[in-house]
Amino acid sequence: MKKWMAIMLLIAIALFGSVIGFNLFKQKMIAQYMANRPEPEFPVTAMVTKAQDWVPTIEAIGFIEPNQGVTLSTELAGTIDAITFESGKPVKADQLLLSLDSTVERANLRASQAKLPAAKAKFDRFQNLYKTSSISKEQLDEAEAAYRSLEADIESLKATITRREVRAPFSGVVGLRNVFLGQYLQPGTDIVRLEDTSVMRLRFTVPQTDISKIKLGQTIKINVDAYPQTQFDGHITAIEPAVNFQSGLIQVQADIPNNDGQLRSGMFARASIILPTVKDQIVIPQSAISFTLYGQNVYVLKEGEETDKEGNKVKVLRAKQIVVKAGERRGNDVHVLSGIQAGDQIVLSGQVRLSNDTKVHVVENDALAVPAQTPML
User: Fold this and answer.
1) Tens of pLDDT along 233-274?
2) Which residues fall within 8 angstroms of residue 314, CB to CB, at 6 or more apart?
3) pLDDT by residue (tens digit) across 151-180?
4) Any idea where the Multidrug resistance protein MdtA-like C-terminal permuted SH3 domain is (predicted)?
5) Between these two residues, 274 and 21, which has the higher pLDDT value?
């Protein structure tokens, strides 16, 4: 029994030793392979940075407004007896657009006007009689009061008739009418929208830190979603004198010529305030910037001489991870404020497999159209 236990113990020790020996041999072979394997080299596309002019802008958003705009209504109640405009058509200042029935007022006006000559003649006659002391001062005053009262009645009736008419307060374009012939209107009922669209306005806000950069007459570029391929020019016409103490923003107004009538009120717009050109700036494509927990980075290529495993001197290109400070972004371009300089060769694509000091080689842009495979080891 003891003999069999000894044999089993020896077998177990032998098996355990074999496993340990195999693992040690495996680790040695892996270490040897890793030590002798070639260093991975990844393909990238690159460009050489150069200094260029940069036109900085201040970006803002807002809504397009007309130069003038009003929803027309009537002051008095009444029945519509004439509509003299067409929906969506231009109108001139003081053009009659709508009138309410004024038959009674016009009849009363004619009656008062018919009485006016007699009242005037009586007043003139009483003036002459008073000069000769033929009548009393009281009689003269009564004749004058009757004449003046009739004049006032005529003016009042004329004003009432005018108030029963709706005229265009300025030249512009009317919208869709909301009323119909024969309809009874209450005071304040919306009739139609009138807007002067010859010049449109854009109101937007900018941070108070940018106040010193904004001036009257400054050029702005405006884009609207309705015309993505068109950029409209405008200029700043007014700046609010006070900063909103809650938001820290200041309101700005710009005028935009609208001769073609493309812009309409209510459109959402993006504005770029054009600032003075800055020379010798570094501008790179957005694709060159990588984002990490430590900020924005660019891979700069550095060529150096190294010794290979055979002891030979070879030139090697490595990607150095550089932290940059990015400024304004415009389209595909980024204005770089610090971190790289003119003449640096930077990686444009292929960064996903890179880390600091990775060995790379530069290829043409087309070579990375289909993602390259990780080099075989």
Assistant:
1) 999 999 999 999 999 999 999 999 998 889 999 999 999 999
2) 305, 306, 307, 308
3) 999 999 999 999 999 999 999 999 999 999
4) 282-350
5) 274
Helix, strand, or coil here: 71?
strand
**CATH number, residue 153:** 1.10.287.470
List all residues 6 or more positions away from 221 whose beta carbon is below 8 Å from its beta carbon. Answer: 57, 231, 232, 233, 234, 271, 272, 274
Residue 146 structural domain: 102-163
Decide if 12 is inside a domain: no
CA 224 to chain CA centroid, Å, is: 8
* Cα distance between residue 82 and residue 326, in whole Å: 64
Domain identity same for 284 and 355: yes
> Does pTM top 0.90 for this prediction?
no
Q: Are residues 185 and 268 in the same domain?
A: yes
Report the pLDDT averaged over residues 187-212: 94
Residues β-bridged to residue 255:
201, 235
Query: What backbone torsions phi and psi does residue 124 show, to the nearest 5 degrees?
Result: -65, -40
CA dihedral of residues 24, 29, 30, 34 (deg, nearest 10): 140
Q: Of all helices (H) and strands (E), which one includes residue 329?
A: strand 313-330
